[in-house]
Amino acid sequence: MQMRFDGLLGFPGGFVDRRYWSLEDGLNRVLGLGLGCVRLTEADYLCSHLTEGPHRVVAHFYARQLTLEELHTIEISAVHSRDHGMEVMGMVRVPLYTQKDRMGGLPNFLANSFVGTAKFQLLFALKILNMVPEEKLAEAVAATQKPKKTALDQAGGAV
């Protein structure tokens, strides 16, 4: 995933004008600007999601399994992309574990703010690609929905 300029987490991508590009060609053009060395095909397609509202957007989600070497190459390439430091602040690896305290790792990560459908897409991919056992994924999601104690609460409310 990427940390965006607005502090939200999201996936690499962008808008594709279907009048000029096929979906995959447009996606690869946009990814080429930000990541350089990855090419997605129709076989990498996972799902689509329609965002309702005044600006209706269809978010298409693609995923590809990479070797650690390929991921490392993409991370290095991303730092040298045209958008790095302006639109994108950097790549972020999603923790696929939960620490013994049941909050560290994936639950804490899911408590971040995500752009548009990115959180839904992440959870869908983790489930459908069997990257996290379904019960562990459900526990991580549930942990983020519990009210957190603030530092003031933990200090006994004294000011």
> What are the secondary-structure elements, in order, as H or E?
EEHEEHEHHHH
Instruction: Determine the N-to-C terminus distance.
Output: 39 Å
Tell me about the biggest sheet? Answer: 3 strands, antiparallel
According to CATH, the fold-level topology is: Nucleoside Triphosphate Pyrophosphohydrolase
CATH class categorisation: Alpha Beta
Specify the CATH architecture. Alpha-Beta Complex
> Total strand count, please?
5
Record the strand order, biggest sheet. 2-1-5
Determine the CATH superfamily: Nucleoside Triphosphate Pyrophosphohydrolase
Secondary-structure class: alpha+beta
Strand content: 5-15%
Number of spatially distinct domains: 1
Low-confidence stretches: none
Q: Percent range for helical residues?
A: 25-40%
| Rg calculated over all Cα atoms | 18 Å
Shape: globular
Average pLDDT over all residues: 84
Number of helices: 6
Keywords: Nucleus, RNA-binding
Organism: Formicarius rufipectus
Main location: nucleus
Subcellular location: Nucleus
Protein architecture, described:
It is a single chain. The protein is α+β, with helices and mostly antiparallel strands and 159 residues long. The chain has one domain (2-146): Alpha-Beta Complex (Nucleoside Triphosphate Pyrophosphohydrolase), CATH 3.90.79. 35% of the residues lie in helices and 14% in strands. The chain has helices spanning 23-34, 68-79, 106-110, 118-128, 134-144, 151-154, and strands at 2-4, 9-10, 45-51, 57-62, 88-91. It has a 3-stranded antiparallel β-sheet with strand order 2-1-5. Strand 3 and strand 4 (57-62) form a beta hairpin. It starts with a strand and ends in a 5-residue tail after the last helix.
